[in-house]
Each structure stands twice: as C-alpha cells, then as structure tokens.
Amino acid sequence: KSCQKPVDKYIEYDPVIILINAILCKAQAYRHILFNTKINIHGKLFIFCLLCEAYLRWLQLQDSSQNTDPDDLIRYAKEWDFYRMFGIASLEQTSFLVGVFITLWRMRPEMLKAKSDFILLLKALLLSSYGKLLIIPAVIWEHDYTPLCLAFIKVFVLISNSQAIRVTLNLNRMLPWLAIFFGLVLENGVVYLFQKTGWDV
C-alpha cells in the first residue's frame, strides 16, 4: 500500500509465463506459486506422480520377464505387480522426504519449529516433483534414448526440489543440496534393502 506497487511481479503475469518460469526453476516463480497462490493439488499431484513411476517400473518389469507361462497372462497377476511397484515407489519417495526433513531439522532446527513450517515444506517438495509427469511422454514415445531421458527427468526433479527448499526456508544453495543428497542416500538404502530381500525394484 505504501509504495503503490505489487511486491510480487508475477501477480500481473499470465499463468503460462509463470509456468514457464517455474520450469526454468526461477526462485521468484517458486515464491509466487508457494506463497501467493492457493494451489491445493499437491496431494493429487503426488499420487499421480507415484502412479506414473509405478507404471514405468511395472512396464520395465513386464519387458524384463521372458516367461511364456499362460498364467502370466492373467490380468490380476499383472495388476498385483503394478500395486507392488506403487507401494515400493511410495516407500522410496517417503524415505527421500524423511531424509530431507531430518537433514534440514538437524542442520537448521530454528527453521522448522512449527507444524506449519513442516507442512509448507512438504507442500513445496510435493509440488516441485511435478517433473515426474514427464515420465508419461518418455514412455509413450519410447526410443533408444529413453534411459537418458529418465535420468534427465530425475535431475530436473532434484533441481526443482532444491529450489523449493531454498525458497520455502530462505536458504543458500548449499544446504538444500545437502538435504537432497541425504534424502537420496536414504532412498537408495531402501532400494538396497528391497533388493537384498529379493523384491524386484
């Protein structure tokens, strides 16, 4: 009111421009989306991203199995594999988030004092995982470079997560990457445990 100007320049921008700037991982766009919009799709987006990841794993599982047993054609058996992959993807994503939260809480406990701080950071991390939706075109337009595309998608999601942590807690660049590193360590630990117990991950 005192300066007669909007503090957030993105209030006047078209949603498409905001989306493009968010894809480019601009901090101001993330701030606008997290603090100045009322987006409540983080839960649905999280579930949809998990479904995409589970479908990709299920598809790779089907491609890797060379079993020609007629029982393999039974639909419910394949669905069971899909649900199993969904459960594994959920557990991995949860362990990643737990690793990020524990690291941030240990390094900067003053940043995560209230429950609302945890909820805001969780929403930011879930929304910033939107890059996993790129799995859909990568699977649809399958080609020789699909593994490389999936690696780029993973890197993009991690960069988005880093920006979300940085913007939400107003941190420098180093601490979010450290939190993401420990989140990945915990996630890969869960993958290793699954592989040791004989589950296909």
UniProtKB/TrEMBL annotation:
<dbReference type="GO" id="GO:0006665">
    <property type="term" value="P:sphingolipid metabolic process"/>
</dbReference>
<feature type="transmembrane region" description="Helical">
    <location>
        <begin position="118"/>
        <end position="139"/>
    </location>
</feature>
<feature type="transmembrane region" description="Helical">
    <location>
        <begin position="145"/>
        <end position="162"/>
    </location>
</feature>
<dbReference type="GO" id="GO:0005789">
    <property type="term" value="C:endoplasmic reticulum membrane"/>
</dbReference>
<keyword id="KW-0812">Transmembrane</keyword>
<feature type="transmembrane region" description="Helical">
    <location>
        <begin position="45"/>
        <end position="62"/>
    </location>
</feature>
<dbReference type="GO" id="GO:0005794">
    <property type="term" value="C:Golgi apparatus"/>
</dbReference>
<protein>
    <recommendedName>
        <fullName>Protein ARV</fullName>
    </recommendedName>
</protein>
<dbReference type="GO" id="GO:0032541">
    <property type="term" value="C:cortical endoplasmic reticulum"/>
</dbReference>
<comment type="similarity">
    <text>Belongs to the ARV1 family.</text>
</comment>
<feature type="transmembrane region" description="Helical">
    <location>
        <begin position="82"/>
        <end position="106"/>
    </location>
</feature>
<dbReference type="GO" id="GO:0016125">
    <property type="term" value="P:sterol metabolic process"/>
</dbReference>
<keyword id="KW-1133">Transmembrane helix</keyword>
<keyword id="KW-0813">Transport</keyword>
<keyword id="KW-0472">Membrane</keyword>
<keyword id="KW-0443">Lipid metabolism</keyword>
<feature type="transmembrane region" description="Helical">
    <location>
        <begin position="174"/>
        <end position="194"/>
    </location>
</feature>
<dbReference type="InterPro" id="IPR007290">
    <property type="entry name" value="Arv1"/>
</dbReference>
<keyword id="KW-0256">Endoplasmic reticulum</keyword>
<comment type="function">
    <text>Mediator of sterol homeostasis involved in sterol uptake, trafficking and distribution into membranes.</text>
</comment>
<keyword id="KW-0445">Lipid transport</keyword>
<dbReference type="Pfam" id="PF04161">
    <property type="entry name" value="Arv1"/>
</dbReference>
<dbReference type="GO" id="GO:0097036">
    <property type="term" value="P:regulation of plasma membrane sterol distribution"/>
</dbReference>
<dbReference type="GO" id="GO:0032366">
    <property type="term" value="P:intracellular sterol transport"/>
</dbReference>
